[in-house]
């Protein structure tokens, strides 16, 4: 018998048992009244006529923290109810602050049955026992390797990946008609454009961390290494390795050439590019609308020489502390994880799908370009220790750009800071 049929049979048996219990409950007060000999007992019809409460089947709750998928997930929830029947209810709830809610409620069995999260929120959930393992079986092959890796933790898979996103290399086509093939070419073109007054900045840096990761990875840079089973490990901190050092030195060389400001600012870098004052910027799909509205003639390409960005993965995690774990896993694996349903999710959300066939079939030029830029993308580390990285990394890059420390010294200081915080846990 198939797992789906077994589940349906179990749910039906549950409802039948509850219904029989309801009938017995109804019969008991009636018999008690008939045994009474005093007239007063007969004059209490409310006790005799009261109908039993209608017994309901299980309810699955799914929390989402944005509304882009809300409508289609409600539709899919209704279809799951119709297919599996017997009083089943699926509730999709839009909550703006839920990233830590399931972790906080794990010990008491509170919170939703499922939650959609960015993969880098996974570590604390697993460590607190809030996330249940998901076994996709043969369906695992339907998904992008980095998407699976994003929800892989301590040798097991803890989420159904839904969508992915990464940054790309934007260029002003009026200034740079062809995509550069080397980082030296980006430097040469950018500096020349600034020197002849065509541009104010060679490269827009929204930051020198997440959005600049490709300039570190093209020479082998990484944040955390992996252990034997492929999980990220804080035993190997790579922030001061040669690739990261060389990447930060490359960026600082643009400062020394007078082609980039020492003031690193997210908004300023985007405004500079969309107003035609910057030749390049490394940013993501969130910038598309503003660039189009500004009318800048842009193109997106992959990063030179094998540089790759972080990949962000969104997916569904099942709450391990709820009683409907099996049913929630069935919703994710047997019902939701089909090409038809993932196509509907993609059309509602437009972030690249985590399912290979839909990812590769994208025909929008910008989406295709981001996909090409993210072909070798690596999921951002999902271990809790990643929380110690950001401040240390930002401080190291600022110390370098302000000329207070060279790149190697600043990055080693960051590693020492991260290690101290980890050891103090």
Write the layout of secondary structure elements.
Layout: H1 3-35, H2 39-42, H3 45-49, E1 59-64, H4 70-84, E2 89-94, H5 101-105, E3 114-118, H6 122-127, H7 145-150, E4 152-153, E5 156-157, E6 160-165, E7 168-172, H8 183-195, E8 201-204, H9 214-217, E9 224-226, E10 232-237, H10 242-256, H11 266-274, E11 278-283, H12 288-294, E12 298-301, E13 310-318, H13 325-336, H14 339-349, H15 356-360, H16 365-373, E14 378-379, H17 389-401, H18 407-423
Parallel strand pairs: 1-2, 1-3, 8-11, 13-14
Antiparallel strand pairs: 3-13, 4-5, 6-13, 7-11, 7-12, 9-10
Which outline best applies?
A: globular
Q: What is the number of helical segments per DSSP (H or I, 4+ residues)?
A: 18
Instruction: Tell me, rounded to a whole number, the average pLDDT.
Output: 86
Low-pLDDT parts are 1-46
CATH architecture of the largest domain: 3-Layer(aba) Sandwich
Secondary structure: number of strands: 14
List keywords for this structure.
425 residues, 14 strands, D-Maltodextrin-Binding Protein, domain 2, 6-stranded mixed sheet, 4-stranded mixed sheet, disordered N terminus, 3 domains
